[in-house]
Amino acid sequence: MTLPKISLLLSSILLITACSTKNNIDVPDNNKTNPLMAVIQTDNPPPKKLPTETFEELNGDFAGNYKLIEFIDYMHNYHQFTHKELYRLFSKAKDTNQIVEPCKVRNTNGSCVVQIRKGKWDRYKAMFVYERNIERGVNFWAEHEDTLNRAYKTYGVPPEYIVGIIGIETAYGVNFGKKKVIDVLTSKSMLGDRREDFYTKQLEKFLIMTRQAGLNASELMGSNAGAMGYGQFIASSYLDFAVDFNNDGVTDLWNAEDAIGSVANYFARNGWNTNISQVAIRAKYKGNRFKRLKTGYKTKYSQRKLRKKHKIIPRSKLYYKGPVSLIKLHRATYDELWFGTHNFRVLTTYNHSTFYGMAVHVLGKTVKQRREGY
To answer: What pTM was estimated for this model as a whole?
Structure first.
C-alpha cells in the first residue's frame, strides 16, 4: 500500500473515532433542572422589571385643555409635583362658567332681574355695617380678645381694624365662600378670562400653598375670585403674609387665631404706622355737594392748603400732621367729606377702594363703641 493511501486511511479512522466520542457526551436537557444553575438563581434572583410611570389622562371639564396640560408639565418640572397627582386633581375640577347662579329676583314673566348697585355710600355701607354683623363683631372680639391684643402688641395694628376686615370679608366666618378654590382658579386661568395671567400665577401659588400647609387642594372653599379663610387671602398673599399665630405648626386661615395674626402682619408689612393713632376724621366744608377737588384714597393734600385756600377743616381734633387723602362719600342729599391719614391708605392696600377702606373703618369703630357701651 502506498503512503498516500495509508494517510487517507488513518484520517478516516480518526474522524470516525471523534464522531463516536461526541455522541457519548451528555448534552444538558433544557427541560431538566440544572443543580448548579438552581443554586445561582436562588442566591442571586434576577432583578424585577420595574413598571414605567404611566400618566393618567386628563378627564372631566378640562379634558384636552392644552393650557392646563402645559401648566401641569411646568408644575412638574419647576416645583416637582407628579403628573399623576395633578392629573387626578384637575380631572375632578369643575368649570365654574357652567355653574348657573341662583336668581334672587325675577320679573312677572319669570326672567331674572339683574340688580345693579349704583355705588352710593349708603348702599355700600349697608352691605357690611348692619345690626347683626355688629353683634357678630362684638362676639368675635370677646371670644378672641387675647389673640387680638397679642396681635396688637406684636404688629401694632389696633384690634378694631382687624375686626373690621374680618367682618367685611366673611361676616366673622359666616361666609367663607361657596365655590371650590381649585374650580375657580382653574376656570379663570385656563378658559380665557381677561386676567388669566394673574389667575395662572394664583393657581401656581395655591398648589404650592396647599402642599406646604398640608391642606387638601380639592376641598378648600373660597370666593368667586379664589380668596380664602377669615381674611379672604388670595394664594400669593397667603405665601407672603400668612402666619402660624397659634404656633401649632400649621398656617390655617380658616383658624381665627392664624387669621387674626395674618391680617395684622399684612398691614404691618404694608406700612402701618404705629405712631399714627387716627385713621380717618370727618371734615367740614361749605355746601352740600363737593366738586372742587379730586377725591379718593390715592389723593394727598397739605392740611394747611386745604384749610387756607379751600376752607376745608376737620370737625374734630386731628393730631396727624402729614398729607391727607380727601375722601368723599356720596349720600342721598349731601356729600360727606373725610380726611384719611397714612394708615387709611394702608387699609386700602387690602382692597383698592375708598368705600372699602371707609367700611372697614366704620365697622371696626362701631363694634368697638358697642363693645365699650356707647
So the answer is: 0.79
